[in-house]
Amino acid sequence: MFEYQLSQYAIISQHTYSKDGVFSKLVYQTSIPSLFAIPVPVIEQIQNGSWQKIETKTLKDLLAHRIITSSSTDERKQVLSSINKSSHSISHRIFVLMPTSLCNMECSYCGQSTCPLRYHGNISENVDQRILTAIMNANVTDVEVRWFGGEPMMAYQHIIESSARYIAAARQSRTHYKSIMTSNGSLMTIKRLQELYQRAALRMITVTVDGYRDYHNRSRCMRNGRPTYDYIMEWMQKSLAIMEQMPKLTIAIRVNITTTNACSITHFIDDLARRHLNNPHFILQLIPVYNWGHDNTQIQLDNTSLDRNMCQWIEQAIAKGIQINILPNTKKRFCMRSDKPPS
């Protein structure tokens, strides 16, 4: 008889949930990561170590999903081995590109300094060559480009032109290619959104909206003083009409939480629902501001207030039908560790 134990990376919910008359508890396996609903009797058998009472098929499923493990297994070594293996794999390559350091906003908490730098000449050619080499590598199956800034939309034409080369190479080599973008949203239009989806394989864009109207316009100031809240919210709302043309697109709405805008988040969530952004293509991300290489302590919420408010905001968003990140559902990828740059 094998001896098993609950995985040290598995977290069992305190609450019980029911569906179709079956009472279950949620188990979050943090090392995968994945969330499972497991019947209460099985949970009790796991916690009591009553392994002989668990059906053979259920036991195999629990082992397969790493909810339980053999008592002789060194889980920490197993997880570190998995991380090490993935960090040396070149099958999935991610490139974070900053085509310009320019930004048309001057956010109160931003730690970046802007200067008029763009890709040009040899730099642009070298970046393209590195990505094209990865795409054409027979051992590479997936390539993802992440457009970052500054404000990447200030280099919009460069993104379109470079993407054309990457996509053409990916088609030739049958490599799966996609791009994502982090943007302040102030330069986006419906036409550009469609072009990025079709010509740059854009599959996700993260747009920062810092709370309800006046709070956003104060913390995310345009250099020319123009407010942007309504403009950003309106193009996102209009995009609903063409989402069937962009079935793989996700728009993440990121809110940087500060002591200044925390009081507006409930109004903001209400506004998302009024604009029908409680749609499967949209997801809300509530991110507390911290020290991004500089001191933001004056505008950080204390942990007690943050925890209390976060629970209320999450419950409100769920009640409104708004998708919201609660638990990670993908593993973080680690940089390759090598003395030589990857081919």
Helix and strand layout, with pairings?
Elements: E1 4-6, E2 10-12, E3 17-19, E4 22-29, E5 34-39, H1 40-48, H2 56-64, E6 68-70, H3 75-88, E7 92-97, E8 105-107, H4 121-136, E9 142-147, H5 156-173, E10 176-183, H6 190-199, E11 202-208, H7 213-219, E12 220-222, H8 229-239, E13 250-257, H9 265-274, E14 282-288, H10 303-319
Parallel strand pairs: 7-9, 9-10, 10-11, 11-13, 13-14
Antiparallel strand pairs: 1-6, 2-4, 3-4, 4-5, 8-12
Helix pairs in contact: 4-5
Structural account:
The protein is α/β, with parallel strands linked by helices and 343 residues long. 35% of the residues lie in helices and 22% in strands. The strands form 4 sheets. A 6-stranded parallel beta sheet has the order 7-9-10-11-13-14. Strands 2, 3, 4 and 5 form a 4-stranded antiparallel beta sheet that branches. A two-stranded antiparallel sheet has the order 1-6. The protein starts with a strand and ends in a 24-residue tail after the last helix.
Descriptors for this entry?
343 residues; six-stranded parallel sheet; 22% strand; alpha/beta
Question: How would you briefly describe this protein structure?
Answer:
The protein is an alpha/beta fold. The protein has helices spanning 40-48, 56-64, 75-88, 121-136, 156-173, 190-199, 213-219, 229-239, 265-274, 303-319; strands at residues 4-6, 10-12, 17-19, 22-29, 34-39, 68-70, 92-97, 105-107, 142-147, 176-183, 202-208, 220-222, 250-257, 282-288. It has a 6-stranded parallel sheet.
